[in-house]
Amino acid sequence: MTYEQLTALYQLPLFDLMEKSRAVHKKHWPAEEVQLCTLLSIKTGGCSEDCSYCAQSARYSSEVEVERLMSKDAVMQRARQALETGSTRFCMGAAWRGVRMGTQRFEQVLDIVTDVSKLGMEVCVTLGELGSEEAVALKQAGVTAYNHNVDTSPEHYPNIVSTHTFEDRLRTIRHAQDAGMSVCCGGILGLGETIEDRLKMLEVISSFNPPPESIPINALMPMKGTPLAENPQVDPLDLVRMIAVTRIAVPGAKVRLSAGRTMLSDEAQALCFFAGANSIFYGDKLLTAKNPAVEKDRMLLEKLGLTTQQPDRRLKNWSKLSERI
């Protein structure tokens, strides 16, 4: 959708906007289901990038301790736990600028992915920048989705990161799609951006061809020691409004209620689900931030009458969907 179209939607009275987003959601996602995803940091801290929201950057004095790449056995244990508690997607993140063919750490990641993919869950990774060769290798190892957020608008991006560009982000996304992986791509609210920035970010995401398979909408969780540590909390109704516009803009994508859920009441989360969110990160921790406990999430979904989605087996043949129109 164009920026002008997105702006017209965003400026609607909230209930009118939610009525429209709910209709789109019911048309494309008629089952009252929520996808449960588990996110695991397999290599934490020490990143060379300077993303101003991230406690894993080596440039900031945060409370995050640098850890080496987890062993395959340790990752597999966490993956099996995720499967047992109902997750259908297992996402592994590593605090690197990117990965390169022929390096020991990339070979280790490919080995881990190969075994995790045998458990029957969708496999997602977020490893920073990808070249075309690396993307193909990940797809062949069993990755179904690559997570690479654009974070904010192209115009605001240089205010948040200086060690890579917005175009670098788009290049990695193209490599992932060309290799046959689906793309999980969203943004972060609360980076000091304007409403215009949020909608321009969504304009970019909604123009992807093929469209993203899932769109995480994150609310900044200010991290001690980072440049954005004192940023104010995102208004929950602004989050609801952004989810509603995203649902209308990309109707076939899963819209993931992501970071920041610990700051939301059950009632605010219910509004997010009603507006079009149908995916959450599930478990007690994201990469470095807290997340609602499994039991609490289960109770909330039960109270709302929502069930859980099964793995999307179509993702194994996503390459067939990535042909250009």
Topology:
Blueprint: H1 3-10, H2 14-28, E1 33-43, H3 72-84, E2 89-94, H4 104-116, E3 122-126, H5 132-141, E4 145-147, H6 166-178, E5 182-184, E6 187-189, H7 195-206, E7 214-219, H8 236-249, E8 254-257, H9 266-275, E9 279-281, H10 294-304, E10 307-308
Parallel strand pairs: 1-2, 1-9, 1-10, 2-3, 3-4, 4-5, 6-7, 7-8, 8-9
Please describe what this structure looks like.
The chain has a single domain, classed as TIM Barrel (Alpha-Beta Barrel), CATH 3.20.20. Helices cover 37% and strands 14% of the residues. It has helices spanning 3-10, 14-28, 72-84, 104-116, 132-141, 166-178, 195-206, 236-249, 266-275, 294-304, and strands at residues 33-43, 89-94, 122-126, 145-147, 182-184, 187-189, 214-219, 254-257, 279-281, 307-308. Helix 2 packs across helix 8. It starts with a helix and ends in a 17-residue tail after the last strand. Residues 285-289 and 315-325 have low confidence and may be disordered.
Short description:
The chain has helices at 3-10, 14-28, 72-84, 104-116, 132-141, 166-178, 195-206, 236-249, 266-275, 294-304, and strands at 33-43, 89-94, 122-126, 145-147, 182-184, 187-189, 214-219, 254-257, 279-281, 307-308. It is α/β, with parallel strands linked by helices. α2 crosses α8 (236-249), α3 packs parallel to α4 (104-116) and α8 (236-249) runs parallel beside α9.
